[in-house]
Structures are given as C-alpha cells and as structure tokens.
Amino acid sequence: MDIYVLLKRTFDTEEKINVSSGKIEDDGAEFIINPYDEYAVEEAINQRDVHGGEVTVVTVGEEESEKQLRTALAMGADKAVLINTEEDLDEGDQYTTSRILEAYFKDKEADLILAGNVAIDEASGQVGPRLAELLGISFITTITSLKIEDNNAFIEKDIEGDVEVVESSLPLLVTCQQGLNEPRYPSLPGIMKAKKKPLEELEIDDLDLDEDDIEAKTKTVEIFLPPEKEAGRVLEGDIGDQVEELVSLLKNNAKVL
Amino acid sequence: MNFELTKEQSMIKKMVKDFADEVIQPRAIEIDETATFPADIFDKMGELGLLGIPFPEELGGSGGDTLSYALAVEEIGRVCGSTGLSYAAAVSLGASPIYYFGTEEQKELFLKPLASGKSLGSFGLTEPNAGSDAGGTKTTAIIDGDDFVINGEKCFITNASFAKTLIVTAVTGRNEKGRNIISAIIVPTDTKGVSISSEYKKMGVRGSDTAEIVLTDVRVPRANLLGDPNKGFNQFLYTLDGGRISIAALGVGIAQGALNKALSYAKERKQFGKTISSFQAIQFKLADMAMEIELARNMVHKAAWLKDKDKPFSKEAAYAKLYATETAFRAANQAIQIHGGYGYMREYEVERYLRDAKLLEIGEGTSEVQRLVIARQLGC
Ligand SMILES: Cc1cc2nc3c(=O)[nH]c(=O)nc-3n(C[C@H](O)[C@H](O)[C@H](O)COP(=O)(O)OP(=O)(O)OC[C@H]3O[C@@H](n4cnc5c(N)ncnc54)[C@H](O)[C@@H]3O)c2cc1C
Ligand SMILES: Cc1cc2nc3c(=O)[nH]c(=O)nc-3n(C[C@H](O)[C@H](O)[C@H](O)COP(=O)(O)OP(=O)(O)OC[C@H]3O[C@@H](n4cnc5c(N)ncnc54)[C@H](O)[C@@H]3O)c2cc1C
C-alpha cells in the first residue's frame, strides 16, 4: 500500500507564546509535530506493518521543518518530502497549502492519505478535505478507528459525543482524531536510522507552480493572545445575598444572562 | 566552536523529555514515598534504546554519543532523581566497563543484554572499609584451576538487586612493590555464593535500588576477568571519570527541575499584594539558579564532547561533577526557600529534589575526592 501522511510543524501551544506586531514570534517558541499529525504518523506505520507498502510523510514548510520530518522517520516512516516554500511565499493559507499538495500528489498513486484533524496553531481543519476534493477522492474526517480489508476501509468517526461507522473504498483521505491510537516515542535506534532515510526537498518550482497560482485567498487581519485570566472573586455574606449578587454580576458585568 | 546540538541529539533530548514528562513524572512522588524501584519504567526505557545510547548497534546499543547520553540523563533527572541515578549507574557503571575493557566474547555475552535493555548491570567497588580509598579493597579473588574464587563484601551498590551481572573489584595478588593488584571480574548474579540484599533506609534517591553484596566462595571462570589483570585500578578510575559526566548531568537535571518549579511557583504565589517573583530577593535567587545551571550544563557538555573526541577528560569530568552536583543542592535548597512552608511538604516535590541532590555530592567520588582529582591534575 502506498500510504502518505500530511504533517505540519507547529509551535507548542503548551509553551509560552509571544505575539509582536501581529505575528507570533518564532524565537523562544518550541516547535513540534502537530499533535493530531502524530496520530496520522502512528496509524500510517501500523497500517503499513499490517498491509505492507511504504509510508511517505509530506510537509509544506521551511528548512526547519526537517526536524519534524526526521522525527516521523524516527518513529518508523520510510520516506519524507519537504516542500520548502520559505523563499517563494510570504503568506499562505489553506488554499495555498492544498494547491501545493495537489501538485505534489498529481502524479502519485496514493492508496491512503492520513492527516491530522486540525493543526493546533490555526485550527482550520481544511487542508485534508480540500486536498481530497482537489484530487477527486473520498475523505472522512475525525476518525477514531481504521480497518482496511482488500480495497475497503472500515472506519469509526467521532461525532460530538457519538460514534459514526463509515465504509469507503480506497483511495481515501482521512483526518485523525485523538483516540485513534497512542503515538509511539521515536526509539533511539529509530532516531539513528532516520539519518539515513531519504528526505527529498522540493520547491514550488519543481511542482510547476507559480506564486500567483497559489496566492492566499484570505488575509490575516490581526493576531492577538486571549485576555489574561483575572483573579477570581469569592463572594461573601448570607447565601441568599450571594446568589443575588452573583445573578446581578452575571447580568450586568459579564452580560451572559 | 559550535554550541548547537545535532539533529539526532536534539531529537533524543525531545524524546526523552516527552517520555520523562508523560511516563516518569506522574510516578515520581510514589517512587520516592514507597521507595520502590520502577522496574516497569526501566523495561520501557530499554525498549526505547535508552540503556544503550553510547554503545554501537552491533553490541545491542543505539550508536549514540556521550553527549546524547548526558542529555537523556538530564531529562530524566529533571523529573525523578531515583530513576536518573539508576539509569546513570546502569549505563556508566554496569555496562560501560565491559564496553571499554571487555573481550569480544564478554561483550557478546554480557554487554549485549545490558545495552539492549534486557537486563541491568551493577558495579561493585565500594566496601564497608573502602569508600573514597578504593585502593583499600579487601575482597579477594584467588585463582583455583580455571576459576576465580571470590570472597568479600560490597556495600551501597546501585541496582544490584535487579541486576543480571555484577562487575566486582577484588585483590588478585601483589605487584613487585608489594602493593595489592586490584582487578575487575564479571560475576553473574545467579552464581552460587552471591547474596544480595537491599535493606538500606535512604534519605533520597529512595526508588533507586541500593544493595549490599556478600560474596562467599563465589566461583567464576577466569575468562570473566575484565581487561588487563594488572590495570584493574586504572580501569575503574577511567570508568568513574565517565560515570562522573552522567552524575553531573543528573545534577543539572535536578537543578533544572528545581528551578522550573520555583519559577512557576514564584510567578503565582502572591504575598503583600504582589507575586513573590516581583520581589528582588526572589528574583536574585532565580537568577543565580538559572546562571549556575547553565554554567554546569556547559561544563557537562564540554566533558562529554572531550570524551566523544577521545581527548583527555578526567579533569573536566571532575569539574562538571563537582560543580553540577553542588549546583543541584543549592538550587533545590533555594527552590524550597522560594516555596516557603509549602516547599517543606512532599506534595510540592522540591524537598525531594534536595534529598536526591545530596547523594550526588557523595556517590561516584565525594566532592572532596573531586577536588583531590582536580588538584592532582594541577600538579599538586
Ligand atoms: C545511594 C548510593 C549509591 C551508591 N552506588 C554505588 C555503586 O553503584 N557502586 C559502588 O561501588 N559504590 C556506590 N556507592 C558508594 C559511594 O561511591 C561511596 O559512598 C563514596 O565513594 C564515599 O565512600 P564512603 O561512603 O565510604 O565515605 P568515606 O570514604 O568514608 O568518606 C567520608 C568523608 O571523608 C571524606 N574523605 C575521605 N577521604 C578523604 C581524603 N583523602 N581527603 C579529604 N576528604 C576525604 C569524604 O569526602 C567524605 O566526606 C553508592 C553510595 C550511595 C549512598
Ligand atoms: C513545619 C511547619 C510548622 C509551622 N508552624 C506554624 C505555626 O505553628 N504557626 C503559624 O502561624 N505558622 C506556622 N508555619 C507557617 C510558617 O510560619 C510559614 O510557612 C512562613 O511564615 C512562610 O510563609 P509561607 O509559607 O506562606 O511562604 P511565603 O510567605 O509565601 O514566602 C514564600 C517565599 O517568598 C519570600 N517572600 C515573601 N514575601 C517577601 C517579600 N516581601 N520580600 C522578599 N521575599 C519575600 C519568602 O521569604 C519565601 O522565600 C509552619 C510552617 C511549617 C513548614
């Protein structure tokens, strides 16, 4: 089976994030594999181990994304592709990314493409579905279980507190949700072997794309951090008075009632 | 000069950090309170290849370098001193001497299971009456046909109760000057006459196994002699030099863990209407801790780098061990101070850091012995 994983390098939202002049500062931020993409990598490796074939991890990113690709290789992926847009693009959006990936996948015969449910930085959840549309293949989002028999995929998918069971033929694109698997730690021998695995680097030129073809359709107007949480207040006095005060605060201050 | 980690080194650091935070950290309080060796965690570490970092793949290792290994020890020490000590001892003391001095057969038979994480090894040097003065070893190994017959007693030996192999030092004869010749011999723990018990009630590193070993007419083949029969003493000095890098890395980890806890507590704790991190008295403590940790880390990395380059590193390993372990003790002490009364309570973990850090100033050569080593290198 030819299995592909779409992987994004993101900053770690559990670490401190600084915003200055409308941009997230790279300096000091910790960068990681988008956690949902880790489920995708793990699943791809597991499917390959059952059905044979190869896992190729693809990212649209920059020079630095090589580290996240190497980590996926250390986990057990076979090949990696870095589509480096650092020099060609200032801004991109989900349209840009999916068009670049479309160009990459045009001449590939992917049986299965796995992506994360969302990337935790921009959380649009669009790149996977858009790519499937552009390639004209089926897609199923937020999957929590995947079994493949012959040419069919049997899938369980998360739907707001419930499970939907779906069947689809291959080729197929799925996006992975928490619960699908437990991503492994890259082992030490895995890390050392990753050094020797193929990592292909492409630019949009190599994909016969022009900057104008993939210009972003959206514009980011502003980026800001959520307001700092203020200290809580403990109400005092008679319970009846406290309830009255609380209702009045919710009505007049917080304006939620 | 280049202070940047390689891709492999930073991947190893990240992997071990994640593993430490997700698997070890949630267990750290329990490991200390119940004083139980976390054997299941060591199984997982073995599967990830952590126990074989500085050994080549052919020998079951991971083919990494000393620096990668030091990074791993630091990350584990940051969350749990007990696990960190047992890890450092297993690799640096239990396995490394076989790698440095073993024959091909010994490596195949004894190192492979250790490097691949299938079992643990221990290094038995210390005796009730021979600690800092290892030359005072009383244990004897007498040749009898094709065997050594070993008699003696070892104390404070890390991991011995969980080990498959021990490397013990013993007197095997006298040289022409009439001085004892001390050799190192590999002793499988299931050999008849080996009795291992861990009854110590320790101040810190309570989850790390520390055992007493009694050897009574223990018979092992002469082929189990490790390295040059006449250079046993120098061999274990070399082994300890390497081990010091890992104990230093453990010190950096404990110190970093203490700083992390102190810093986040200081930013939250309010007194006099302000967070205590806004008081200069607290800021200066945090600044000193951060500075000392970075200096210690640089020294550890330099010593590791020298070892990886096959350059002399004995003095630098002593600098690193001495400075990093004393930094760990100071940082843990200040972290308690910054936590006020809460810091004195187990739940906040910083008091454990202090108890764990204290061992580092004693094991693998006390702080005084490090100063002796350095002074000797200065030509005193
Ligand atoms: C938890 C733990 C784990 C250990 N693990 C191992 C292990 O795996 N393998 C192993 O072989 N050993 C191990 N040890 C033993 C450890 O290495 C010794 O405790 C250490 O070397 C000190 O020896 P000692 O306890 O006999 O103290 P002593 O040597 O009696 O020292 C007592 C004091 O005298 C000082 N002193 C001694 N000689 C001098 C001198 N010449 N000049 C100035 N001061 C001096 C020392 O610095 C110290 O302050 C472990 C110990 C502990 C507590
Ligand atoms: C075992 C034990 C027994 C105790 N017994 C009693 C008892 O019998 N009765 C009782 O009332 N209390 C008792 N205490 C409480 C003890 O007095 C307090 O823990 C102590 O006063 C510190 O207060 P805190 O723990 O709230 O720390 P904090 O006041 O939060 O201090 C945290 C850190 O901030 C520093 N700090 C705070 N303010 C400033 C400032 N303005 N400038 C610079 N640094 C500052 C402190 O020095 C400390 O390093 C006990 C505590 C313990 C641990």
What would you say this structure looks like, in words?
The complex is a heterodimer of chains A (257) and B (380). Chain A contains six helices and 13 strands. Chain A has 257 residues and is of the alpha/beta class. The radius of gyration of chain A is 22 Å and the shape is globular. Chain A folds into two domains: 2-214, HUPs (Rossmann fold), CATH 3.40.50; 230-257, no CATH class. Chain B is of the alpha+beta class. Chain B is globular. The model of chain B has no long low-confidence stretch (mean pLDDT 96). Chain A binds chain B through residues 66-67, 70-71, 74, 185-192, 194-195, and chain B through 7-8, 10-12, 14-15, 18-19, 47-50, 52-53, 57, 62-64. One flavin-adenine dinucleotide binds next to helix 5, strand 1, strand 3 and helix 11 of chain B.
Spatial strand order of the main sheet of chain A = 11-10-9-12-8-1-6-7-13
Instruction: Characterize the biggest β-sheet of chain A.
Output: 9 strands, mixed
CATH H-level superfamily title of the largest domain in chain A: HUPs
Task: Give the N-to-C terminal Cα separation of chain B.
Answer: 31 Å
CATH architecture title of the largest domain in chain A: 3-Layer(aba) Sandwich
Strand content of chain A: 25-35%
Q: Could you tell me the mean pLDDT of chain B?
A: 96
Q: Write down the overall geometry of chain A.
A: globular
Low-confidence stretches of chain A: none
The CATH architecture of the largest domain in chain B comes to: Up-down Bundle
Please give the count of helices of chain A. 6
